[in-house]
Amino acid sequence: MYDVLANLKLVESSRICLHESHENRRLHKTRQIIEEEGILRHPPLAIHMQNGQYLIIDGAHRTFALQALGCKHIPLQVVEHEDFHLDMWDHIVPVAAWLQSVEQDSVFRWETERLRETPVAEIKIGDKERFYLYPNENRQDDEWRMTLWRQLVDSYNYSHQVHRLPTGMLECPETGAALIRFPPISLEELERIVSEGHVLPAGVTRFEIDGRLLNLCIPISLLKQEQIELEQWERLVKKWRETLRLYSKPVYMCDA
Question: Where would one find coiled-coil regions in this protein (predicted)?
């Protein structure tokens, strides 16, 4: 049987990097829950990069919250590249003033036809209108691309509720809504963007991963230690190994 717990690592906080920014409201809620419960239920997922750093691919808000709470070590479920699939989220947002502000923003150019160059995003309004958003400035570097992505997402993310759907699940948003679709990026591109010191806006990348470790209930007091008490950690791993269950059928869980 595959030993998933062998991939659970306690990593120094300084060796962890993130590929996306955070949403303030979600971070506040996540930190509050962890602080009140005194435990981390679900470890973030990460890959081990060539430079020795660990890149968080799922669990950015948990990681930010743990760092803000003074945790010196972060438990990570480290996965291999073949264990996950990188995709993107489509954003469904009400049509409102944000759309007009983007239309009037001089950094963007709107086209009704897709050009050879990769667009910043594709925007569909209702079932009839489709636009492609391109940069007005002729730059293709990662820093500029991430700046435009963040500028677009920030235009609606703080003032409207954003519904996220897997790319392609919905082709035509309902009347009064806009669908924003971002071009896909590869894992190699993502690692390069992070190594250059840039981050994506929150909630754009989507990782499909099999075999997540859930409900470990790791004490925050342990993670705040400068030097981890290995005996305590080993006792926890032993307990998890004895109580671990694999559910092979779909499970529905509410994020309260």
Answer: none
3-state secondary structure of 179: strand
Q: Residue 146: its pLDDT value, please?
A: 93
The DSSP string of 74-141 is: EEEEE--GGGEEEEEEEEEEE-SHHHHHHHH-TTEEEESS--SSPPSEEEEETTTEEEEEEESS----
Q: Which two tokens stand for residue 29?
A: 């809620």
Query: Cα 110–116–120 angle (5° rounding)?
Result: 45
The SS3 of residue 181 is strand
DSSP secondary structure letter of residue 4: G
Helix/strand/coil for 10: strand
Residues of the chain with confidence (pLDDT) below 50: 1
Q: Report the candidate in 165, 164, 176 with the shortest Cα–Cα distance to residue 129.
A: 176
CA dist 49 to 67, 68, 101, 188, 201, Å? 20, 23, 38, 10, 21
Distance (Å, rounded) from C-alpha 104 to C-alpha 176?
A: 20
Across the chain, what does the average pLDDT equal?
92
103 is catalytic: no
Residue type, 182: F
Q: What's the rounded Cα separation, in Å, for the pair 77 and 10?
A: 9
From the list 20, 35, 226, 242, the catalytic residue is 20
Q: Closest Cα partner for 75 from 66, 83, 84?
A: 66
